[in-house]
Design the sequence.
């Protein structure tokens, strides 16, 4: 007979296993489909675990030949990285100010920033389009970069101010002031190095938000040269009368790969950074 | 080393509910080399005062001088001070050696060897030589406290500031560090301002104690002065543990010039001297320290009152008796032989030379016992 703790542990792992299966099955299906021919992908006779010889790189080769994915990915990386850098550049001092300084309108500004995170962006597409049109930024990568930076900014500020408020004791900065730093020096030399995990986590989320952004790229661009991979996928999905599931899934795999790599690189920081928030 | 002078220093915080006066017109002169302890309940303004001196808090009104030089507008780094925080505030990403040497590197042009020599010297003084290459995260609270103190010592500043540095340590370590900080002060002779809410810490370490309440200076004096001659009921209550017993009494003068203090279950005959000093009949608050009360059935009736024993706490060296007198708690520190049963009625007495009388309205001290009351009690105005 198994004792109480072992039995409850068994139940725990069974539940965790079921949940993992539920969560991971779609990903498996995406990867499986991307390595099959389109016919095999929709053939009910294909096993859940397809035979090794039925796997093929055909879908990936077709993507390479039929679509301009190098441009799409280059655009995606360019706009995501730029949006991440720009938003961090502004949100680090901004978040620090929200966390530490008392200035008139601090609360109003902060809640405005937080509100924009929750605001349904689709509502403001037309005015935003108008503004970018007036600024001559429609159908340009610069326009997309600016738009993504702006929309990523509040979320980055929100994440970072929480860390500055709770993760960095004020006394440490005060000790730095007494040790001989100016306020800026204390921030740059003491606070910022200590905030590396949080900045890493915020950068990851900024990158993911920018990478996954569909709406603004879709609204602000129409030319293929300035299209990002996320939007390109939508065009692939909508282009063929006969759905080519394998190609679609291969594109999805490619689309998901960079964020996964980026997460892998910054994973060490993310837990630590979020821990302080 | 430096002399520190506060001139009518006031600090007002602006809050949404209106201005909050944290420190009100504080004037204080601290001579070079003195160890001064600021003590008071939380929110009394002691830390704010220290932070104004450090430059971490702006000064609303008044002036702080360091060696006769006004420092109101000076940034913290130009003030030549070192501070130890309650949370220690060590840089977690730097080793102990880097933590201790950082201030010297930033604020002086000493060579790296010289900085290191001074760091090692300070580390030896604090007994942390073998921790120099560790990060603060791997140290115990006591060790971190030593590092924080070492970091201040290395600077050889004009003034040391301590903001409740021992509050996060356990009782035993706290006592040990108390002695150690006193030793360091006598070795270095640097002006030291130490903030604490613990009156025992203040009594044991200070050359002079500054007692604050509600942002106002209550009394400045040596530990003995504030203990034997508290300026008012607040100081009397705050200094000493267990704290002083207070009874609201009326003084009735007899025809021979002597008098009787009566009220709240107490009736106690006092001599002509006491009557003269308080200036006749009136309403007063009688204060008497637990260590001055005695359980004694042989004392004269006129100087005795009855009390019921509520709780007896045996602490080894003494017994703490909690009595009930006229519906109020009365604390007595008795020798170990005196251990009455709970519920028993005992006779309590004290010497006239140990009593304190306060004005019931202003709470100012009027009389401090017979023998020690030969002069007017010092008042806040005189001290300031």
Sequence:
């Amino acid at each position: 007979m198994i004792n109480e703790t072992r039995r409850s542990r068994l139940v725990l792992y069974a539940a965790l296993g079921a949940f993992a299966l539920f969560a991971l099955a779609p990903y498996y299906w995406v990867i499986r489909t991307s390595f099959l021919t389109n016919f095999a992908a929709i053939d009910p006779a294909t096993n859940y675990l397809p035979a090794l010889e039925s796997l093929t790189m055909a879908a990936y080769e077709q993507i390479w030949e039929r679509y301009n994915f190098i441009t799409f990915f280059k655009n995606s990386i360019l706009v995501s990285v730029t949006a991440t850098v720009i938003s961090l550049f502004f949100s680090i001092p901004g978040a620090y100010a929200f966390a530490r300084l008392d200035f008139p309108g601090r609360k109003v500004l902060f809640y405005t920033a937080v509100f924009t995170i929750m605001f349904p962006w689709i509502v403001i597409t037309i005015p935003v389009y108008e503004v970018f049109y007036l600024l001559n930024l429609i159908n340009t990568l610069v326009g997309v970069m600016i738009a993504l930076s702006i929309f990523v900014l509040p979320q980055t500020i929100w994440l970072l101010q929480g860390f500055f408020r709770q993760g960095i004791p004020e006394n440490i900065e005060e000790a730095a002031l007494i040790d001989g730093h100016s306020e800026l020096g204390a921030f740059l030399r003491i606070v910022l190095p200590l905030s590396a995990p949080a900045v890493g986590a915020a950068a990851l989320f900024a990158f993911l938000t920018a990478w996954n952004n569909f709406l603004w790229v879709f609204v602000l661009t129409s030319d293929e040269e300035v299209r990002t991979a996320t939007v390109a996928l939508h065009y692939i999905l909508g282009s063929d009368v006969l759905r080519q599931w394998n190609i679609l899934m291969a594109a999805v795999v490619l689309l998901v790969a960079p964020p996964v790599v980026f997460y892998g690189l910054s994973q060490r920081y993310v837990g630590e950074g979020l821990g302080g928030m | 080393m430096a002399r520190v002078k506060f001139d009518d220093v006031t600090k007002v915080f602006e809050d949404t509910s209106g201005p909050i006066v944290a420190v009100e017109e504080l004037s204080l002169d601290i001579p070079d080399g003195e160890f001064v302890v600021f003590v008071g309940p939380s929110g009394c303004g002691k830390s704010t005062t220290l932070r104004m001196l450090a430059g971490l808090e702006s000064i609303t009104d008044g002036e702080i001088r360091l060696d006769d030089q006004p420092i109101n507008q000076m940034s913290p780094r130009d003030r030549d001070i070192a501070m130890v925080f309650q949370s220690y505030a060590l840089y977690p990403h730097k080793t102990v050696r880097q933590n201790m040497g950082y201030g010297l590197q930033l604020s002086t042009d000493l060579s790296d060897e010289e900085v290191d020599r001074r760091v090692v010297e300070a580390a030896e003084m604090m007994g942390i030589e073998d921790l120099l290459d560790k990060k603060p995260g791997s140290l115990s609270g006591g060790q971190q406290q030593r590092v924080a103190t070492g970091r201040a010592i290395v600077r050889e500043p004009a003034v040391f500031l301590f903001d409740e540095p021992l509050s996060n340590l356990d009782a035993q370590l706290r006592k040990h560090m108390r002695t150690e900080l006193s030793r360091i002060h006598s070795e270095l002779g640097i002006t030291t301002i130490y903030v604490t809410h613990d009156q025992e810490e203040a009594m044991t370490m200070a050359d002079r104690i500054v007692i604050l309440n509600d942002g106002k200076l209550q009394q400045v004096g040596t530990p003995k002065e504030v203990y034997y001659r508290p300026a008012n009921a607040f100081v009397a209550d705050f200094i000493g543990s267990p704290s002083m017993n207070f009874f609201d009494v009326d003084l009735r003068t007899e025809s021979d010039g002597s008098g009787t203090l009566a009220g709240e279950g107490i009736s106690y005959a006092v001599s002509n001297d006491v009557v003269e000093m308080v200036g006749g009949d009136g309403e007063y608050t009688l204060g008497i320290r637990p260590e001055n009360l005695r359980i004694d059935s042989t004392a004269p009736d006129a100087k005795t009152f009855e009390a019921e024993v509520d709780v007896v706490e045996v602490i080894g060296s003494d017994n703490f008796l909690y009595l009930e007198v006229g519906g109020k708690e009365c604390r007595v520190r008795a020798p170990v032989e005196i251990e009455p049963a709970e519920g028993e009625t005992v006779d309590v007495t004290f010497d006239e030379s140990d009593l304190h009388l306060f004005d019931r309205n202003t709470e100012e001290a009027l009389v401090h016992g017979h023998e020690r009351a030969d002069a007017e009690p010092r008042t806040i105005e005189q001290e300031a």
User: Anything to note?
Assistant: Chain B has two domains: 4-233, 234-383.
